[in-house]
Amino acid sequence: MERIDQFGMWRDLQRHEVPSTAAAELAPVLGAFLGFVWVYRAGGYAQAARVFPYPITQPGLHRQVSALEGALRVELFVRGGGRNVVPTHAGRQLYRWLTPLFTRLSDGLGRLRNELDGELRIHASRLVLDSVLPAWIRRCSERHPRMVLSLHELRSPSLELLQEGIADVLIAHYGGRDDHGVTRTPVCVLRPYLVTPTRKVPRVASLADQPFVAYRSDLEGHALQRAALSRLKLAPRTAAMVDSASTALSLVQAGCGFSIVPALTARDIRGRGLGVLDLSRPMGGRTFTVDAMTTTTALSSDALVRAFMACAPVAGRPHQRARARTSE
């Protein structure tokens, strides 16, 4: 049997440019895609017939899959042991293509029945995941119990995640870079905090000879730290490079040096028994706004995105008050 993607009809179908002749050929067996998926997952026709979402016999499933094999001109299963079947290479290819198709179809039908029934993909930094999103998700869950939020940790913010459809909402400090076609909504303000292993913060000048726990040079936090150190007129040696504020705080707590980390409030850090100095106040340092970003088109057309953003905290509002808010 030839590989399934060698047929022009298959390539046309993948490009959503199915010629009328191919469409007519496939029309009688489109329902067989569902039968194929259930046989693939169950491992056999008899097993699939028992768990199928509507009544169907084993011979009926077999006829569906046979019709599909005839339309695609490939063999999708071979006999295994007992009543089991084993997918061919073409069968595995077809299943990989159909899985996201059926997932999106299910989500789409759910949105037709209820606009707020579906999955929203949220990519956010670790600090946002730990400190901002829990209360936000609680509010969203209370208002829209059928909405599912899929959370992903964001190492380095990139608008390509939105533009390529990988993420629905991006939550991070993104600086002043080009954001054409992206709508930003401020959700919280981060302050830079100098953190030391002892509760009593020593004089800043005495830290010049102490080791420093830095962000990795490829992360935006690294540049923010360097800017703060420059304002403090410090040039310490780097003891370790990390990729998150939580790792930096753990190393400081272990006595590996001092660091500068962004946080919502000093309370988020002091619970670890560390010395904390808010650099945004006595040193006149910058604060950093965290934005929830989505494409302008999605914000205007996607009910899930609008509903999620309606539950967002208000930037600049004290952290505990924002956390306590449960209704608009």
Write a concise keyword list for the protein shown above.
single chain, 328 residues, alpha/beta, Arc Repressor Mutant, subunit A, D-Maltodextrin-Binding Protein, domain 2, 3 domains, nine-stranded mixed sheet, two-stranded antiparallel ribbon, 42% helix, elongated, disordered N terminus, disordered C terminus
In short:
The chain has helices spanning 8-14, 20-26, 32-42, 45-51, 58-72, 89-113, 126-131, 133-143, 160-163, 220-232, 245-253, 267-270, 296-301, 303-310, 319-324, and strands spanning 77-79, 85-87, 118-124, 147-153, 169-172, 182-196, 212-215, 238-242, 258-263, 275-278, 288-295. The chain is α/β, with parallel strands linked by helices.
Structure write-up:
With 328 residues, this protein is an alpha/beta fold. It folds into 3 domains: 4-113, Arc Repressor Mutant, subunit A, CATH 1.10.10; 118-187 and 290-324, D-Maltodextrin-Binding Protein, domain 2 (3-Layer(aba) Sandwich), CATH 3.40.190.10; 189-278, D-Maltodextrin-Binding Protein, domain 2 (3-Layer(aba) Sandwich). Helix content is 42%, strand content 20%. It contains 15 helices and 11 strands. The strands form 2 sheets. Strands 3, 4, 5, 6, 7, 8, 9, 10 and 11 form a 9-stranded mixed β-sheet that branches.
